[in-house]
Amino acid sequence: MIIQSFIPPRRTLMGPGPSDISPQVLQALSRPTVGHLDPSFIGMMDEVKALLKYAFQTENDFTIPISAPGSAGMEACFVNLIEPGDKVIVCRNGVFGERMRENVIRAGGIAEVVDDIWGEPVSIEKVEQAIKQHPDIKILAFVHAETSTGVRSDAESLGKLAKQHGILTIVDTVTSLGGITLKVDEWQLDAVYSGSQKCLSCTPGLAPVTFSPDAIEKIKSRQSQVRSWFLDQSLVLGYWSGEGKRSYHHTAPVNSLYALHESLLLLKNEGLEHAWRRHQDMHNLLRDGLEKLGFEFVVKADARLPQLNTVYVPEGVDEAKVRSHLLEQYNLEIGGGLGEFSGKAWRIGLMGYGARRENVSLCLKALEESLR
Amino acid sequence: MIIQSFIPPRRTLMGPGPSDISPQVLQALSRPTVGHLDPSFIGMMDEVKALLKYAFQTENDFTIPISAPGSAGMEACFVNLIEPGDKVIVCRNGVFGERMRENVIRAGGIAEVVDDIWGEPVSIEKVEQAIKQHPDIKILAFVHAETSTGVRSDAESLGKLAKQHGILTIVDTVTSLGGITLKVDEWQLDAVYSGSQKCLSCTPGLAPVTFSPDAIEKIKSRQSQVRSWFLDQSLVLGYWSGEGKRSYHHTAPVNSLYALHESLLLLKNEGLEHAWRRHQDMHNLLRDGLEKLGFEFVVKADARLPQLNTVYVPEGVDEAKVRSHLLEQYNLEIGGGLGEFSGKAWRIGLMGYGARRENVSLCLKALEESLR
């Protein structure tokens, strides 16, 4: 096997993530590596925390990026908040709800599943009923923006409902952070995780998380040790904490954090509300074009994610073949369906830096030509 | 707080890692991101596997980089191989042996600790005795190259001893891979993990691992589920496996893998044996210079790691002040002591791309000037 340097093709990324990345972020990524205990780096870590607080709209002091992908961010929330025997309501309306259920079980918890049809938002009524049915529920877990279906659930109502009942929430905002309205403090969410490679338009590999004071209290009052050493946030906190000497936990992914810093700075400079509006505007353009081409959306209009457009594959079309054609002929990536929608739907992302007019036009024209 | 793009200083990294990184690797890092299921990316993944097999000197099919730092690589080995109640001998002669013990306990295992003095290699005799004392031992865990002390243990003898007794080994090669002789197959090691940021001279954030057929058999015959979803290698395997359709597990850290590919390619092109010799040669130069300056090594000559030189801080010297001076005046990073050696020793790394003549000279001259 003769191996040479890998020179990737230049794609336009309009799948479910990773999303298109700004040249500025790629440039930041390749700046010279410094030590993970270098004073200059520690200053940058504080800025990353401040920028993440802004993105999450929270004052939570514990707001950091986990040094691993979004699924490790998910696991960090579950293993730290759940103790063996804890009962957890898991809302399942797509792939990531099911993954939450698996996390509950592996963390030693008991999962009470509230199912909704794929492509529909989590039903507040069903959750309310489940809370009444199980007065010993400790945690409510749900996905804000289901990456497998493109549906938005009402995180505000779910957060406030849980808080009324003294229940902690674990919320998946992997695809929502930076793309649609998300207000961690106002909505009273407790343990919230995301990913770097969606609407933040950073490279994949980091998982921003934030823990509310209530979540921290639960972690501090644990009777049993967290099952994961790497994800034990009481240890991680010593490394990211702003006061005194940083205690070594693991070697931070220095360069990836340069990129996250830059992508969060781009978001800050644009302004969150402006970014949310841009995602909506680009979605409207894409939606109009797709409907003109005869596409049908999986999700009804009022629960649709602007940053992830899930449409049914037209009848008689070999969906994998079209996606390969788009990739090979246009260097354009769109996503296939996942789980129940595998082979039946396409997922077209307009995330972060990818939510640009030229991307919408390219996608519409390339689809039109490819489906002829 | 006014935040601007982070422009890091240009350091010479001679601590315990991250190590100096070749400009070629930094360049690879910033190439355009492609989707993690892109055919071009999947071809690159196969090359990364092949290059890692070469670096580890193994034919193990399951040889991949975990999408998280070295400590997650450690955890991946422990959570996959240990089932609740399994007895594990843990050799502890530094910080990372103790971390192994914590991993055993969190994975539900029982740790039988074999202690050796910090700075001395693991005693084969003590391990042999422990095996005789505990006939129900399932796993032997030890560190090949202790990053906290700079000592090398005899991984070959320990690997073969364990195999004779039908015991699996978990071996930490975070600091050894690429820097000193390591032959996974010949030494019959079973679950071996490393880090990207030491002698591979890649950016921090990835953990190469390799599992022998015996280790895979143990994973496949587990009675209980792996406690971590993210690190469950039976799931990860589906993503990295060379045959058929890749099943989605998590979004791979695409750009970090570009960098790993490039750094492994540099190692392959140099040749492993040449790289090992270069580390030894540079160590000899540095050792001669340090001894001329009056430094004393913590580790005796025959167990010393060429890539990590641990020396006692001269009496009466404010060690933190000197390190700050080196960083501020020379942009040179050396490492402080860890654990028992905190405040008492310095750790000078000559790892991967950092094992260069100009680094040795800079370090010696800067130390000489700073200690005057």
Automatic annotation (TrEMBL), chains A, B:
Tell me the superkingdom of the source.
Bacteria
- GO biological process assignments: glycine biosynthetic process, by transamination of glyoxylate
Entry keyword set: Aminotransferase, Pyridoxal phosphate, Transferase
Instruction: State the name under which the record lists this protein.
Output: Aminotransferase, class V
- Which Pfam families does the record associate with it? Aminotran_5 (PF00266)
CDD domains from the UniProt entry: AGAT_like
Lineage, uppermost ranks: Bacteria, Pseudomonadati, Pseudomonadota, Gammaproteobacteria, Vibrionales
Q: What does this protein need as cofactor?
A: pyridoxal 5'-phosphate
Q: Which InterPro entries match?
A: Aminotrans_V_dom, Aminotrans_V_PyrdxlP_BS, PyrdxlP-dep_Trfase, PyrdxlP-dep_Trfase_major, PyrdxlP-dep_Trfase_small, SP_NH2Trfase/AEP_transaminase
Which residues of the sequence carry a binding annotation for substrate? 347
Point out residues bearing the modification N6-(pyridoxal phosphate)lysine: 198
Q: Which family does it belong to?
A: Belongs to the class-V pyridoxal-phosphate-dependent aminotransferase family.
**Which terms in the Gene Ontology molecular function aspect does this entry carry?**
alanine-glyoxylate transaminase activity; L-serine-pyruvate transaminase activity
